[in-house]
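Long-time lurker. I teach an intro course on protein structure, and each term I like to show students one example going from raw sequence to a predicted 3D structure in token notation. This year I'd like something fresh instead of my usual example. Would anyone be willing to generate the tokens for the chain below so I can use it in lecture? Attribution to the forum is fine with me.
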Amino acid sequence: MTTSPASKRVKTSPPLIGTHNGHFHADEALAVYMLRLLPAYTPSTLLRTRDPALLSTCHTVVDVGGEYDPSQNRYDHHQRTFDTTFPQKQTKLSSAGLVYLHFGKAIIAQRTGLDPESESVDTLWRKLYNEFIEAIDANDNGISVYPSSETAKLEKRFNDGGITLSSLVSDLNHDFSVAVPPADDSATTATNNHDPLNPPPPPPSQPSAAAAAPDLQAAEDTRFLSASTLMGTTFLRKLHGYHTSWLPARAVVLKAYESRFQNDPLGRILVFREPTPWKDHLYTFESSSSPPPNNNNNKNANGEDLQAHKVLYVLYPESADAGAKWRIQAVPVSKDSFESRKPLPEAWRGVRDVELCAKSGVEGCV
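-- Reply from a regular --
Happy to contribute to a lecture. Here you go:
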């Protein structure tokens, strides 16, 4: 009696991710990192090339190949006919936006433990795109924050371009270890020999350019991985913050917003019982505000339109400890503005307790 041989487990190769070599940008650096956050791509290898024959062997290709076809795992955005955007947005996607569009919710669920179909995941997905991914898409596609007609006559007070993530990724394209020969023999000094940015000329036995090409490509690939890590860890920090701080604060701010008329007849003061990241949520609730509870006509006793009065001040304790000192903050005219809707009188600023009572004429200041 014979028995059939035991079935052998089929070994599968890890998925191969392809992107282009040469000058790299923030979008494909982030796209590759985000893919590798998913279990299916965790053991993946990366191939950087523009060779169509080599790219055809890849399981997933981003930012190269001239094809956008999710069914074939192709995510390029350089086609003339490409016009895909994120839901309810107008910014054309880059490779980062494409990967995030298709895999973002799965990544968020994987990192947070939330149900992929939950409202919380959808909220975080939209928040991360709005606050992080969209700017990468716009930068890669050459889309300005403001219409050129509105900025033509504006002059910058200082150059802020060097502090963006995209500029930091761009810096990684430069290999400062490449030998730069001096202009003449007299320029070679002992100091230069110890300067990492100005190394001595290579010895005569240096390999030919053809022989050195693989080493140069390997060095470029290493710098790309550094760029990918920079973009990816920033993405994860933002996701962590939105999940553990911003999202829980949403319910707290909503409760305070709905009860603001208990503090002021016109609802101009928001009070929190513990430190809370309120700013994002306040502007969201104000922009989609419904009439206050038990007030169907949206008017106060004097006939004033309550919705015309926005929150001017926010009160909160410095910490959750009993007896903590309280702070007051004037609400900015917009989320990113340094201008307040109604600044506190200058004489009141930076003082408290008895001194504040004296300056304000109000008893019981703290």
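Some talking points for your students: The radius of gyration is 28 Å. The first strand starts at residue 16 and ends at 19.
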